[in-house]
Write a structure and sequence with these properties.
By secondary structure, the chain is of the alpha+beta class. The chain has 5 helices and 7 strands. It has one domain: Nuclear Transport Factor 2, Chain: A (Roll). The protein starts with 9 loop residues before the first helix and ends in a 6-residue tail after the last helix.
């Protein structure tokens, strides 16, 4: 596994991709970049896994559990596309890592809305099969993330 001290964090990648659209005092901490009422969506999420998270407090409870599923090795810098409104961003990036059952080499397209310097909506488009293969299936997700599963 590579030296994780040389891997930019998710927050650092977002800070670089969103730049001045995020208020300066948020730094590189993802949660600090989020509005209290953030809506985080996984549109391609398979049945029996997490589909949507609402609110910064919910994200704060979810992230440590979800982060424990994958050991990340590297993350690419994002290619950023800014909409004409200046508040909607499309990011293309990838990461490499490993779950208990296999590799987690994932490509993402994320659509992010920012208002008043904070992320208000984040839609994460990724291949759920990569996650399921890396962690060992939907039942493992249910056991680890059950409090966040939408039915």
């Amino acid at each position: 596994m590579s030296d994780t001290n040389n891997i930019p964090s998710f927050g650092a990648m977002l800070r670089g991709a969103l730049g001045d659209a995020i208020i300066a005092d948020a730094g590189e901490n993802f949660l600090d970049m989020c509005d209290e009422g953030i809506v985080f969506e996984f549109p391609f999420s398979p049945k029996g896994s997490v589909r949507e998270l609402r609110g910064r407090d919910t994200m704060a409870a979810y992230l440590p559990k979800a982060g424990g599923l994958i050991s990340f090795e590297s993350m690419s810098p994002a290619v950023t596309h800014v909409a004409k409104d200046g508040e909607t961003f499309v990011l293309e990036f990838s990461c490499k890592g490993k779950g208990e059952a296999g590799r987690y080499d994932q490509n993402y397209i994320s659509v992010i809305e920012v208002k008043n310097g904070r992320i208000t909506r984040y839609r994460d488009y990724w291949n759920p099969l990569v996650l399921l293969n890396a962690v060992g299936g939907v039942e493992v997700l249910k056991s680890k993330l059950g409090d966040f599963i939408d039915g």
